[in-house]
Amino acid sequence: DRILDFADGDAFVAHNAGFDMGVMKSAAVASGLPVPESRWADSLRIARKTYNLESYRLPSAAMAAGFEDFDHHDAAGDAQACAAIVVHAARRHGAADLEHLLKICSAQFLRIGPAAEAEKQLDAWWR
User: Fold this and answer.
1) Quick one: DSSP state of residue 111?
2) How confident is the model at residue 118, as a pLDDT?
3) Mean pLDDT by 10 residues, the chain (127 residues)
4) Where are the alpha helices (DSSP H) in 8-113?
5) Exposed, middle or buried: residue 105 (CB in 10 Å: 0-12, 13-18, 19+)?
6) What is the dihedral of CA 70, 43, 105, 69, to 10 degrees?
């Protein structure tokens, strides 16, 4: 709950966000808690639409954003690198906010939680 309180309704940003979303889901299940409703933006996807790189791993994408000295796989360092990528990409694309940046990058918010699961089931039913 503390991480959700900290986010205060804002979206989470992660590089290869599916991994972090899975960790949050697994942690909730292991703790006997419901999977929390949350929105996620993937800095990997943003980097792929912003930079022309040989590798889009977090250190490479962060370097392209001008963020070079960080301890990769350290939670705080990785979070700062993701933020640097998103802020740099937003400036480069002239995006006013994260939602606008995702639209420019042909991406959308990823979601987890009961509403996201219900939406997936409804989509599957309609197919």
Assistant:
1) E
2) 86
3) 90 98 96 95 99 98 96 95 99 99 98 90 84
4) 17-30, 43-50, 58-64, 75-93, 98-104
5) buried
6) 0
- Give φ, ψ of 26 to 5 degrees: -60, -40
Instruction: Tell me the pairing of strands 12-14 and 110-112.
Output: unpaired
Residues, the chain, total?
127
Angstrom distance (rounded) from CA 23 to CA 100: 27
CA 126, CA 43: separation in Å to the nearest integer?
31
Listed residue (39, 49, 21) closest to 106, CA to CA: 49
Provide the b/e sequence for 51-63 (b: ≥16 CB within 10 Å): beeeebebbebbb
Per-residue model confidence (pLDDT) at position 2:
87
pLDDT of residue 117: 87
H or E stretch covering 13: strand 12-14
| Per-residue confidence (pLDDT) for residue 119, from 0 to 100 | 86
Whether 111 and 38 have beta carbons less than 8 Å apart is answered as: yes
3-state secondary structure of 40: strand
